Amino acid sequence: MRIIDLHCYPNTQKWIDCQGPYVKALAEYWGRDWQAKTEEEVVAEFKEFHVDALLVALDLSTTIQTPPCDNDYVAGMRDRHDCIIQAWGALEPTRGRVAIDEARHAINELNMIGFHFHPIMQHIQVNDQDFYPLWEEISSMGVPVMIDVGMTGMGAGMPGGLGVKTRNA
């Protein structure tokens, strides 16, 4: 049987770093530390368990001011291991025109399959009319969108949940 993880985290240091203060809170929530792996270790695990992965990029630069685990990074990881990895792009909808330009770059130059959004972590509501131009651009490209919904450990145990609001799910 073929196994495809449609929502897979790179779990490298860059991925962990992009989540800034959430890392410590998640370790407490999970009851274990979040250990970074090298790219080679991540790929070796995929191969060992015969998993094809769709890696997720993540950009929280406007919400928690961390460097993103950006589209170029995730696409590069895919390109080095394209036999088992594909990649979702990430956009910060609050960046307006910059997000639209990045959407075009991700699809037209990086050949990503579509976009992943995490409304809770990005502190957005996807029905916000300010984001309609971005949604229209993505729709015009004919690519899929994956939106995380439901409960999350993000913000657990943090004052005010660090701005996390489940209504955004």
Keywords:
169 residues, alpha/beta, TIM Barrel, five-stranded parallel β-sheet, 36% helix, globular
Per-chain topology:
Blueprint: E1 3-8, H1 13-17, H2 22-30, H3 39-48, E2 51-56, H4 71-80, E3 85-90, H5 97-109, E4 115-117, H6 119-122, H7 132-141, E5 145-147
Parallel strand pairs: 1-2, 2-3, 3-4, 4-5
Helix pairs in contact: 5-7
Organism: marine metagenome
Keywords: Lyase
Protein name: Amidohydrolase-related domain-containing protein
How does this model look, in words?
GO terms for molecular function: carboxy-lyase activity; hydrolase activity. Keywords: Lyase. With 169 residues, the chain is an alpha/beta fold. It has a single domain (3-168), classed as TIM Barrel, CATH 3.20.20. 36% of the residues lie in helices and 14% in strands. It has a five-stranded parallel sheet. Helix 5 runs parallel beside helix 7.
Number of helices: 7
- The span between the termini is 32 Å
Write the element-wise H/E pattern from the N-terminal end onward: EHHHEHEHEHHE
> Into how many domains do the coordinates divide?
1
The CATH fourth-level homologous superfamily: Metal-dependent hydrolases
Q: What is the helix fraction of residues, given as a range?
A: 25-40%
Overall pLDDT confidence? 90
| Unreliable stretches covering 5 or more consecutive residues | none
The rough form would be described as globular
Biggest β-sheet strands, sense, barrel: 5 strands, parallel
